[in-house]
Structures are given as C-alpha cells and as structure tokens.
Amino acid sequence: MNHWLVKQEPSTYPFSLFLREKKVVWDGVRNYQARNFLRQMNLGDSVLYYHSVDERAVVGLAKVLKTAFPDPTSPKGEDWTSVMLGAVRAFPHPVTLDQLKADKKFSELLLLRQSRLSVMPVPPELFSAIVQLSQ
Fold first, then answer.
1. So what's the pLDDT on residue 115?
2. Residue 15 near residue 87 (C-beta atoms within 8 A)
C-alpha cells in the first residue's frame, strides 16, 4: 500500500464538503509530475487531505476508490488523469504546515520541498507520524 497527500484550497473544495459527498473524482490536475503520481495510486491507498492557501494544514484522511482514468475535464487531445477518492474521516486536530516545518523528521516531505505540487507520495513512516499528530 502506498500513501499520498493531495492539496486543495478550502474555498474551492473543503474537506467538510468531501465528507458529505463521500467520494469525488479528483480531476483538473495539470502538472505532469502530479499526473504521474495519480497514475501510481492503487486501490485502497491512503490519502492525506491538505487545505492549502489560507489554512495550510492536513485536515483529513481519504482513500483511493478507483485508480487512474482519463480526466473528464481534460481538453481534447491532452493526456491528463483522474482518480476517485473516498472520504474516510476528518482529523480531530489538523496538522499545520508550521508543525511539519518545525520537526526535522519531515524535512524530506515533498510538501515542504515542492510546495506547488498538488499530488505527492508520502513515505509510510511520515504518513503515520502525521496521523499520530492529528489525534
């Protein structure tokens, strides 16, 4: 099983709405590296949900319900990818970007190294540490 983090602006698609809707097609990704990460996702992989811009915190947990398929919002002739994600649960205590930056064990986390990337893998030990911080 792999572990991932996806980013979204809370003003665009907050985790609270995701929880109500239960599942979402994760589309509109227009970065080649992020697209390639979407293509590596496997059924059942765990996904951290990060609110970007104003909040800057990991706020919940999701899982991959359907693996890579053509992005329905993709312009004709372009090769973009979507996955379907299912909401699992909100974190009782969001894990802020400042918390992650303050702990040296997270220094290799792509969220801290490539801040504009919207989909990224998370090493299992860092995934577990983030979930633990949220409790």
1. 85
2. yes
Helix residue spans in 14-123 (DSSP H): 15-21, 32-40, 97-102, 110-113
Position 89 scores a pLDDT of: 98
What pLDDT, on a 0 to 100 scale, did the predictor assign at position 22? Answer: 98
Q: What distance in Å separates the CA atoms of residue 8 and residue 83, rounded to the nearest whole number?
A: 15
Locate the domains of the chain by residue range.
3-133
The first and second tokens of residue 41, run together, are 């996702």
Residues in the chain: 135
DSSP letters, 102-118, are HSGGGTT-HHHHSTT-S
In contact, 33 and 117? CB cutoff 8 Å: yes
CATH 3.10.590.10 is the classification of domain 3-133: yes
Cβ neighbors of 76 (< 8 A, separation 6 or more) are: none
SS3 15: helix
Residues of the chain with pLDDT under 70: none
